[in-house]
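Sample intake sheet
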Amino acid sequence: MNGTKKIAIIVSGGPAPGINAVIGAAAIEATNRGIQIVGLQGGMKAAIQEREKAFMPLDIDAVSRIYNVGGSILGTSRFNPLAIPENETKFIQLLKDQEIDGIVMIGGEGSANLSHLISTRIPELRVAHVPKTIDNDIPLPSGEKTFGFETARTVGTQVVDTLVIDAKTCRRWYLVETMGRQAGFLTIGMSLASGASLALIPEEYQDRLYDPQEFAERIVTSIKLRYHIGKHYGVVLLAEGLLDRLRPQSSDLLDETLRDELGRLTYSEIELGDVIMPHIYERLRDEGITDLELKHKNVGYELRCASPIGADIEYARVLGFGAVESITSRQGAHMITRENEQLHFIPLDQFLAYGKVRGRTVRLDSDVYKLACRYMVR
């Protein structure tokens, strides 16, 4: 052990199944090593707003049975305490006042950037970043998936399978919007594991910005192919990241005021189905098809706090242990990963590209993507 006395666990970004398993494993391992461990309730935002009141002691009795519980007992927030000098000063001073010498950060791509920045601002602080996202868009070694993805795909597939039955029973089409801003792994995974008729992901539309009519035309093609063989029903999966592939001027619904500080659309404010469905109905009328019903369904928030399946529990607990091992044996900031049943501690700066942690997207030349397309009606 390198003299670590107190570790803080912080959850950042959106929830993912398995977070509590990481928290529990890290807290138990730290306690067994004689290290004090606390959790920051409410994430980074609480560090600025609540100060020392946000810290919650994590003893073994408090965490021993949370491994299979969805959500996060510490909550979470999307907040960068280094964004403005005043908050940065408060944050650094808070860590000093609380005598924190190690941080376990549980978060996705954006949070990994933050972990790296914190380590550069406070060089003596040891940072272990545990990659978490149901989007699976962090480039882990050997294509290892991020924890939470398997649970999200499993739960999402169950929802889609039910919608397929409902669609057939009620003779209707569902447009199902799934999570995935830049990466379509979840959409493709749910499509291949279910009876979806079609799936569209943002990786297919990177050459330019598109109009809603062009997405509608792609969907109508599938509807027509099924309609003319007597199947007046189906399910289309649409990754939410398709919104960013639309020309902002192509729809009144794509209001520029609904973009965040990074210029990205605030997905919770816009339904992709609302943008595309009028154009689908218009194209169907042009084809003389007037007896079809379309329904829009957003499947996202139901997945993030689902109870983790066994694979994610095991995976997350291994990473929680690894986070404490990294902090107690290494200087600087490391991404905690698992490859071939072995823990790996990769310096965070190795994940950087142009100053930010690079993302991972679906390869359109991969066998999995090609196979998924073969099962679609395209």
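Comment: Residues 260-264 have pLDDT under 50 and may be disordered. The longest strand covers residues 333-339.
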